[in-house]
TrEMBL record:
PANTHER family membership: GUANOSINE-3',5'-BIS(DIPHOSPHATE) 3'-PYROPHOSPHOHYDROLASE MESH1 (PTHR46246)
Highest taxon, organism lineage: Bacteria
Domain HD: from-to ranges: 34-129
Gene Ontology molecular function, alphabetical: guanosine-3',5'-bis(diphosphate) 3'-diphosphatase activity
InterPro entries cross-referenced by the UniProt entry: HD/PDEase_dom, HD_domain, MESH1
PROSITE patterns: HD
Protein name per the record: HD domain-containing protein 3
Organism annotation: Candidatus Thiomargarita nelsonii
Length: 187
């Protein structure tokens, strides 16, 4: 794929994700526009993880569209191709399942997904762990935030080894998040 084709694919993915997530907000106190999250995941892959594979980057931009919008697999396949659809599908939870079952499936599934999906999932967890510490969902108790960190660590255990830079960044982000939560207890 030429750099022009990659740039076009990237811009199409940003626009597609922005349209699909246009009415969604994160659950933090500021109600941050949801699109900021997939952009942050893609940026984490590119800047921190040094992942410059466009299928993975586009997958990051689209990673929540199947799960959280009216996007169909056919739309992703037609616009972005089978490889992007495969990556997005690998990181998509089945919303028909109860939340606890979905969380358990992420832990069980993590060691068996592709390298691209592992890197994407790891960047997603990095971003979510950071947000849990610094701009958490407004109704989440400290206990729930701590439980999220513990659960994310179990998921990440199955993702390790494909990108040591992302592994180390997750570890640092988790450590910082735990410290931030500990400080909030002592305040």
């Amino acid at each position: 794929m030429s750099s022009t084709d990659e740039s076009s694919l990237f811009l199409t993915a940003i626009k597609f994700a922005a349209v699909k997530h246009r009415d969604q907000r994160r659950k933090d106190a500021k109600a941050t526009p949801y699109i900021n999250h997939p952009i942050e995941v893609a940026d984490t892959l590119w800047q921190i993880g040094k992942v410059h594979d466009m299928v993975t980057i586009v997958g990051a931009l689209l990673h929540d569209t199947l799960e959280d919008t009216d996007t169909t697999p056919e739309e992703i396949q037609n616009l972005f191709g089978a490889e992007v659809l495969a990556v997005v599908s690998e990181v998509t939870d089945d919303k028909r399942l109860p939340k606890q079952q979905r969380k358990l499936k992420q832990i069980e599934h993590a060691p068996h997904i592709s390298t691209r999906a592992k890197q994407l999932k790891l960047a997603d967890k990095i971003c979510n762990v950071y947000d849990i510490a610094h701009s958490p969902p407004k109704n989440w108790s400290l206990k729930r935030r701590q439980e999220y960190l513990d659960w994310s660590e179990q998921v990440v255990a199955g993702l390790r080894g494909v990108n040591p830079i992302l592994d180390a960044h997750y570890d640092a982000t988790l450590s910082d998040a735990r410290a931030a939560l500990a400080r909030s207890i002592s305040v």
